[in-house]
Design a protein that fits this description.
Strand content: 15-25%
CATH class of the largest domain: Alpha Beta
Radius of gyration: 22 Å
Number of helices: 17
Strand order of the largest sheet: 7-6-5-8-9-11-10
Number of strands: 11
Shape: elongated
Distance between the termini: 65 Å
Order of helices and strands: HEEEHHEHHHHHEHEHEEHEHHEHHHEH
Length: 423
């Protein structure tokens, strides 16, 4: 306990944290903070403090998952926020050592996402089963950052607004051919077809996602225009007027960034538009948290903006627009976190208590990474030709306004027709 006590005493200044060791001895850290709820943790054995001190991320997660770290006051999100808030990214003056991210020496091997390994990595996360994700996601199953035009909006509204935000940047016209790389459960592809009268090919490496996406296209009567394939982006051929990729670039891996953009340029029509939506780092390149690498996203890595730009610029892709969604992921993940808590009994019935705690910790840690850590979300628009999009950005705002107006008008169509989204 001595090493952990020393670390917490030095680290925790904001928020009240009480640790009760296996002998019942209490140690208190920090001070009251109106933004942080008090937390009391009971540690069940002698070795857990040492494991947490040696590797805070994995040590804390595994102790919580195994029931060796018990929350007697507060919940896991409160504990994670106290730790993160005391080392908020923008307030730091040097590198942090309390929440070690992992070894840079192991990074190249961890991110070698060759075709076979990429499919295994995707299956690890997404092929848990569609029924699992249905439990706590909104009906369209958008598993990426929402867009909160109002902080009080529902998750459903934020995800609908996210799709409108993406569509507005693609500068869509009827009859165009759109490629959706990493299409998830097909929600964005179906939306783009509905609002812009375009044909869409969505590709995924998840058999579970593929089955549901195809089922949804059939149910909507658009399977001839919205198609889904179990295909690695590296194996694609043909030409597309528009390319969109949401939440997939995090699975590419730094060694393959240049190849990703080279392939996208090859697939994109000369007057085409590409939009990349990805989680990103606000600072320099880093490493993947060892807990995330081990349990959640094997092969995953969140890129720094410099890594994205350096890989795209050598492929002569012109960045025409870049937006950082700084404040949108925390409320998105908070919705997921609360929904996941609400289905606790069902998750435990289908899986077990340890699995439930694993995912609850993951969601709590993810929220804190974007509220207090160094993570954000980037949306980058790329062109092959500098004149492929209008000179000024008004076309984005006007298209988005029309999409919002159509969705809010009870007397009108649910979405815009393709003709109305043109310049």
């Amino acid at each position: 306990m001595r090493l952990l006590d020393k670390m917490l005493a030095r680290h925790v200044r904001k928020g009240e944290l009480t640790i009760i060791d296996h002998k019942g001895r209490k140690r208190r850290y920090g001070a009251p903070d109106p933004e942080l709820r008090p937390v009391t943790v009971r540690i069940a054995d002698r070795m857990t403090p040492l494991r947490v001190a040696r590797d805070p991320a994995v040590g804390t997660a595994e102790a919580y998952m195994d029931g060796r770290l018990v929350l007697e006051q507060g919940e896991i999100l409160d504990l994670v926020l106290i730790i993160r808030r005391n080392r908020r990214w923008e307030d730091r003056e040097g590198p942090g050592k309390f929440l070690r991210k992992g070894s840079k020496l192991g990074r190249p091997l961890a991110h070698l996402n060759w075709r076979r390994q990429a499919r295994r990595n995707v299956a690890h996360h997404y092929d848990i089963g569609n029924d699992f994700y249905r439990l706590w996601m909104e009906a369209d199953m958008q598993y990426s950052c929402g867009y909160f035009t109002d902080p009080g909006n529902s998750l459903e509204q934020a995800q609908l607004d996210k799709k409108a935000h993406l569509a507005s940047k693609l500068y869509l016209k009827p009859g165009q051919r759109v490629l959706d790389i990493g299409c998830g459960w097909g929600g964005l592809a179906l939306y783009l077809n509905r609002v812009a009268d375009v044909d869409v090919l969505g590709v995924t490496l998840s058999t579970e996602q593929l089955a549901l996406a195809r089922e949804r296209a059939e149910a909507a009567g658009v399977a001839d225009r919205v198609k889904f394939e179990l295909t690695d982006y590296r194996d694609l051929t043909g030409t597309f007027d528009r390319i969109v990729s949401v939440g997939m670039f995090e699975h590419v891996g730094p060694p393959f960034y240049r190849g990703f953009f080279r392939k996208c340029r090859e697939l994109l029509a000369p007057d085409g538009v590409m939009l990349l939506h990805t989680m990103g780092r606000m600072g320099k390149p880093g490493t993947t948290d060892k807990f995330i690498q081990k349990y959640i996203w094997p092969g995953g890595y969140i890129p720094a903006l410099s890594e994205i730009v350096s890989a795209s610029e050598v492929n002569r892709l012109i960045m025409a627009d870049c937006e950082a969604l700084r404040l949108h992921y925390p409320p998105t993940v908070l919705h997921w976190y609360e929904r996941f808590k609400a289905c606790r009994e069902e998750v435990i019935r289908r899986y077990d208590e340890r699995f439930y705690r694993l995912w609850l910790f993951y969601l709590a840690a993810g929220l804190s990474m974007f509220s207090d850590g160094g993570m954000t979300v980037y949306q980058l628009q790329y062109l092959r030709r500098r004149d492929a999009a209008p000179m000024i950005r008004n076309y984005m705002f006007e298209a988005e306004e029309r999409l919002h107006a159509a969705a809010l008008d009870p007397a009108g169509p649910a979405m815009l027709s393709g003709a109305e989204i043109r310049e």
